[in-house]
Amino acid sequence: MITKQKLEEETLQVIEKLQNEKFAELNEMFEKKRPYDMSVIFQSLPEKYGISLLHNLDETTIASMMQKINTMQKLEVLGKIGPEKANKVLALLDTNILTRLLKKYPQVQLKKFLEEMDESNASYVKSMIDYPDNTAGSLMSNRYISIEDNLTVQDAIDKIRSLALYGEGNNHVYLIDKKGFLTGTVPYKELLLADPNEMLKNIMLKQVICVTTTTKRDHIVRLFKRYDFTALPVTNEDGVLVGIITFDHMVDALIQEASDDYGKFSTASKEIDFNTKPFNAAIRRLPWLVILLFIGLISGSIISKFEGTLEKVVALAFFMPLIAGMTGNTGTQSLAVVVRGLAENEIDAKTVMKLIFREFRVSLIIGVSCGLLISIIAFIWQGNIYLGLVVGCSLLLTLILGTMAGTVIPLILYKCKLDPAVASGPLITTVNDIFSLITYFSIASFFLSKLT
């Protein structure tokens, strides 16, 4: 783990070596570091030294460092080192990282890069780019070892030795027939224990769990969770083996998904981090806030409509923030439960109805408990039992409404093939504010004669 003091020392060393043009020592220094430590040092450098570093590091080191920076930073790095060196760096990247990056790469440079690749790799990368995000096709890697099932154990061991540095799936060898169809797998342990002259088809596991290129990420996550895979084979629709999803790639994808969903919950762009400049951060966050601002104006118009009620019973104003806040809170809680459940479970009509009914009962229990408590507090504070009744009933109804909104809205979005996380916390809170104010003042107006 690189400490703050260590980072400062090494940053100064890098600047010193750049100033003295000790580029060989610089490359030697970075070659000994982990990708994360390299990225931290690079990002701590002033811009002019960062550019100089990129121009003097070799392509392998830059490719290694790029594993640990975000997509926008990767594009900036490639833009600073020039097209020729950028293409060499791209060629060294893992296929999974490469395709995610190329989806945002300028089309002119992308075309030139693909033209310079050998035909088979270029064809593979093009197909990867075409796969929709969050599918097996976009997550897989072509760095796996496959062997024809009509070979012997000794043949398999010899091939594994020759390709050991290439393959990423280090627990199983994938067996195919002459046409490339996935027929089975053999754990490496079985290869070591088997007779060298035994045919692979006689010792292979025939019941292979695999996914197709169009399988969604949430289904893949469930498979990894249920079966503790370290890698998962991917086939095309015909059953031909085309790649594998390794555990570390799946973890990276899950971390990215969690980061994206958190950004959506808070209506902040997923590209905002500690290093984002203030103006860029503001521009990326402003659109949602402007939308919520105008939606929030509806709340103001509701209050103005019930201005007469407020003038007659000023005590109602004391409980407005509480009613609105509690409704938003319970809606956000339900939203988080539903979005997490959608990611972990397969959803059908029966499950949806069970979830909605469960959340309704939860809201009823919470509403009765909180409504009764606030009724007692309002009565003791203001000495008016009808005020306590108005506040308590309003809180009960709004908590039920808020919970149902936080449950139903993401389910509707999921059914419409939209990301449920876009039903973000601030949006749910703002909508629930409107519901809660209408409910609160409607009940108060009904009991107005008893409150004055």
Automatic annotation (TrEMBL):
Matches recorded under InterPro entries: CBS_dom (IPR000644), CBS_dom_sf (IPR046342), Mg_transptr_MgtE_intracell_dom (IPR006668), MgtE_N_sf (IPR038076), MgtE_transporter (IPR006669), SLC41_membr_dom (IPR006667), SLC41_membr_dom_sf (IPR036739)
UniProt keyword terms in alphabetical order: CBS domain, Cell membrane, Magnesium, Membrane, Metal-binding, Transmembrane, Transmembrane helix, Transport
UniProt GO MF annotations: magnesium ion transmembrane transporter activity; metal ion binding
Membrane topology: Multi-pass membrane protein
GO CC aspect terms: plasma membrane
Chain ranges passing through the membrane: 286-303, 315-339, 360-381, 387-414, 426-448
Compartments reported by the entry: Cell membrane; Membrane
Stretches assigned to the CBS domain: 204-262
Pfam families in the cross-refs: CBS, MgtE, MgtE_N
Function: Acts as a magnesium transporter.
NCBIfam families tied to this protein: mgtE
Family: Belongs to the SLC41A transporter family.
Assembly and interaction partners: Homodimer.
Official protein name in the record: Magnesium transporter MgtE
Organism of derivation: Lederbergia citri
Gene: mgtE
